[in-house]
Design goal:
The chain is of the alpha/beta class. It folds into two domains: 172 residues, 3-Layer(aba) Sandwich (Rossmann fold); 92 residues, Pantoate--beta-alanine Ligase, Chain: A,domain 2 (2-Layer Sandwich), CATH 3.30.1300. It contains ten helices and nine strands. It has a six-stranded parallel sheet. A three-stranded antiparallel sheet has the order 7-8-9, with helices on one face. α6 crosses α7 and α9 packs antiparallel against α10. The two termini are 30 Å apart. The mean pLDDT is 97. The structure holds adenosine monophosphate. The site of adenosine monophosphate (AMP) has 16 residues, from α2 and β5.
């Protein structure tokens, strides 16, 4: 497995592969790998000849009061895990090369970035689309794999590609969970034992919502008010949002249908956690 840090080095590697008719799958990450990231890497292998994983904690997508400085970083462990999961290249650029002095260009997907996580994290999605666009230009993948754990991010990236007529196939990977249902996240390591157990409210809420829908309930406001009560019963948990939305345009739904997704964001202590699930069984993403 190669480790590349230079932007032009990375582009040259990709150009050589493309020129010889080979395809490239990209998995963008911020590192601190868990089984969720590793599943994306193994999944990516099915869609291309080469798998490139980018490892870059992107300063642009963190707000001034967010956890950029303390975001967990362990390059050697990540590189070993990527190698063990069949990755061909880890691309880990220097922030100073990605955003040199004078940098001032941003990509914003207007409407889809505004609600849900965007409301509480202004500028976050613009940071994400900007870095993803830059990584796409540098790595030039045929396919990119993203986790549906970050459901809004996936919708925003798909919109950007469509709006910019960009011919990269996006593959969504289902949420990878711990045995007890907690969605894997690099931020789970911030949780104390008590907070870790409070965090199960997210997967429980999804399960409960599916049960209600299974019993024939379709009115979103009724389902949501039950879920809010369920989650708020634990005082350690602050709800940021709980919404039933259409999986394509992320607009709120009054009545649950095949395209409904439950999206949740909570704060537990200093940690912000998100989760989501389709309410009527269907394919991912
Ligand atoms: P991150 O390093 O958190 O930016 O995540 C990198 C990629 O891994 C994104 O596409 C995430 O959606 C995906 N990812 C993170 N956690 C999970 C998970 N538990 N299941 C599936 N994909 C995940």
């Amino acid at each position: 497995m190669k480790i590349l840090r230079g932007l032009s080095e990375m582009s040259a590697w990709s150009c050589e592969r493309s020129a010889s008719g080979k395809t490239i799958a990209l998995v963008p990450t911020m590192g601190c790998f868990h089984e969720g990231h590793l599943s994306l890497m193994r999944h990516a292998r099915r869609f291309a000849d080469y798998v490139v994983v980018t490892l870059f904690v992107n300063p642009l997508q963190f707000g001034p009061r967010e956890d950029f400085a303390r975001y967990p970083r362990d390059f050697d462990r990540d590189a070993a895990l990527a190698a063990a999961n069949g990755v061909d290249v880890v691309f880990a650029p220097d922030p100073a090369d990605m955003y040199p002095p004078g940098y001032q260009t941003h990509i914003t997907v207007d409407q889809l970035s505004q609600g849900l996580c965007g409301r509480n994290r202004p500028g976050h999605f613009s940071g994400v689309t900007t870095v993803v666009a830059k990584l796409f230009h540098i790595v030039r993948p045929n396919v990119a794999v993203f986790g549906s754990k970050d459901f809004q991010q996936l919708a925003v990236i798909r919109r950007m590609l469509e709006d910019l007529n960009w011919d990269i196939k996006i593959i969504a990977h289902p949420v990878v969970r711990e045995a007890d249902g907690l969605a894997m996240s690099s931020r789970n390591i911030y949780l104390s034992a008590a907070e870790r157990s409070s965090a199960l409210c997210l997967s429980r809420a999804i399960k409960h919502a599916r049960q209600l829908v299974g019993q024939g309930l379709r009115e979103a406001t009724t389902i949501l008010s039950e879920l809010r009560d369920l989650i708020a019963a634990d005082q350690a948990v602050q709800i940021e949002y709980v919404n039933v939305v259409d999986r394509f345009n992320l607009s709120d739904q009054a009545v649950v249908d095949q395209d409904s997704v439950l999206l949740l964001a909570v704060r537990i202590g200093h940690t912000r956690l998100i989760d989501n699930g389709r309410l009527i069984e269907g394919e991912v993403g």
